[in-house]
Amino acid sequence: MVLVDAITIAFLGAGLFFLFVGSVGLLRFPDFYTRLHATGKCDTLGAGLIILGLIVHHFFYYPGTILITVKLLFLILFIFIANPTATHAIMRVAYKTGVLPWKLGEGRK
Amino acid sequence: METGRGEEMMKGEKSFGILITFSVMFLFWILLSCIFDAFHLLLGVVCSAIVALASHDLLVRGRRPKILLKSFRLLLYIPWEFWQIVLANLDVAYRVLHPKMPIDPRVIEFETTLRSDFALVTLANSITLTPGTITILVEPERGKFWVHAIAKQPADSLLVDQTMQRKVADVFMEEKHGATLTEKTEDKNGRLG
Residue range A62-88: average pLDDT? Predict the structure, then answer.
């Protein structure tokens, strides 16, 4: 069980790291599009890793209710489909309404 | 795959779509309910049947040939995609945490040979999830993509190597070697007509 806990904590920690990186990127990057790069990607993997940690924990501590782990797996799948789609939708609207992309050498907005 | 089973082509196609939709819906019902007594299972059968009859053409659209094979090939594509997602996140993490923030954003356009909705969606989402690129617009008629790349190197991997286009075209068995590179422009005014 110590090993299981270690694996769970490793997954949760990695997930937290990527969510943290996403937030830092949201603050540091210069414009709308690059900020979406940070949040769109890191949130997907961060949330996925955290759920993966929960799956490992649940699988070994409550082996009787295996279907819950399957439900969590489906959550990962849906996040992985929905998140890029939402990112793409936001990006598309910004581009169509004429938000200018930041170019190298320009100052920060 | 299963041609020649029904007498009429159309009829066989329709019932095939209904059957597939029904199976998926019922499996999902069992998954979510976890209750295995007769009443709940019967309820699931009725609900899945209604959904299958009403909306089978949304899940299985007309062109039946090789849909099972294509789904299978898509399953093989997913592990590679997961690996790309991990790489993408490490890439973003590196760019975010690097003190000098090595980014050089640009907008690129390219055309592909993909035409079917499912292939275009798969490629668009794959581009968004892989290192340094996000899909902005897709034009289905010409298979044209507008992509925002965060630096030169990820842009080149789409424009020059075209690994991902080839992989997706391979999965959906659409024309391979034709991914034409029309122009390598950075949109000057940043908007479309």
Answer: 85
Angstrom distance (rounded) from CA B79 to CA B85: 10
**Domains, chain B, ordered by start:** 9-59 (no CATH), 67-171 (3.30.70)
Q: What pTM was computed for the model?
A: 0.73
Chain B residues close to A32, C-beta within 8 Å: none
Residue of B nearest to A73 (CA): B31
**Nearest chain A residue to B121, by CA:** A85
Test mutation, B82, B87, B96, B164, chain A, max A CBs within 10 A: B96
Q: How far apart are CA A93 and CA A95, in angstroms?
A: 5
Using the structure block, give the residue that is written with the tokens 């797996």. A73
Q: Tens digit of pLDDT for each residue in B120-156?
A: 888 888 888 777 888 888 888 877 888 888 887 777 7
* Number of residues that this document lists for chain B: 193
Q: How far is CA A32 from CA A28, A91, B130, B153, in A?
A: 11, 9, 19, 20
Q: What is the domain partition of chain A in residue ranges?
A: 2-96
Q: A71: which chain B residues are within 8 Å (Cβ-Cβ)? A: 31-32
Task: Please give the ipTM for the structure prediction.
Answer: 0.77
Q: Is a pLDDT exceeding 70 seen at residue B2?
A: no
